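To illustrate the input format used throughout this study, we show a single complete record. The first block contains the structure-token representation of the backbone; no residue identities are included at this stage. The design step must infer an amino acid for every position from geometry alone.
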């Protein structure tokens, strides 16, 4: 009888130890699974962050600002964008249409005027001038021509500077008229960028004074 009690006691103790070991084993397995899930989530987040960084770098590489900086025809414009603190703006995501003055266009502006605009104290004025060449949205040449034809050869758009320019057609070429009555011609259309489109023009558009 005593032996039976001893055996029963030992059995109970064995069961308790087994139960304790089983609990510890389950806790260890749960911990290992949680650590595995955490590691997988971190790896996935790292991969996504890397992919986003690569996408950002690719976007910036093909942005309006980068296109201007890498094209010798627009080196003066690139310099002006940097001086105005707008280069980064036109490297960021967005949809812009830039009527970009070529180097020859900037060369037509009196040197004293350009020198004055490029002074640090005239940064805001330079920003306004450059924004006067930019319209929100991506307008390829065919869309511009259609809009002009749909508006009796006088399609008015508002620039980022808050002033209007009027687009028209003459001898098959897109013309730009400023509020001052100045005329410029689109000479090189549809340079695509990751955040918009660039149309090269033969004159710098001057704002209303």
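Output of the design step:
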């Amino acid at each position: 009888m005593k032996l039976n009690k001893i055996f029963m006691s030992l059995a109970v103790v064995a069961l308790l130890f087994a139960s304790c070991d089983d609990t510890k084993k389950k806790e260890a397995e749960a911990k290992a699974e949680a650590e595995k899930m955490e590691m997988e989530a971190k790896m996935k987040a790292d991969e996504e962050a890397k992919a986003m960084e690569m996408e950002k770098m690719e976007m910036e590489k093909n942005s309006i600002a980068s296109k201007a900086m890498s094209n010798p025809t627009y080196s003066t414009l690139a310099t002006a964008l940097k001086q105005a603190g707008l280069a980064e703006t036109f490297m960021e995501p967005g949809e812009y249409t830039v009527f970009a003055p070529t180097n020859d266009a900037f060369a037509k502006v009196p040197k004293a005027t350009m020198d004055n605009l490029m002074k640090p104290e005239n940064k805001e004025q330079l920003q306004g001038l450059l924004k006067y060449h930019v319209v929100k949205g991506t307008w390829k040449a065919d869309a511009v021509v259609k809009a002009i034809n749909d508006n009796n050869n006088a399609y008015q758009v508002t620039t980022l500077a808050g002033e209007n320019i009027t687009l028209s057609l003459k001898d098959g070429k897109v013309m730009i008229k400023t509020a001052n009555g100045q005329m410029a011609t689109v000479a090189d259309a549809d340079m695509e960028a990751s955040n918009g489109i660039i149309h090269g023009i033969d004159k710098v558009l001057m704002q209303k004074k």
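Structural context for interpreting the output: The helical segments are 2-61, 64-70, 75-84, 103-107, 111-117, 123-131, 141-150. The mean pLDDT is 86.
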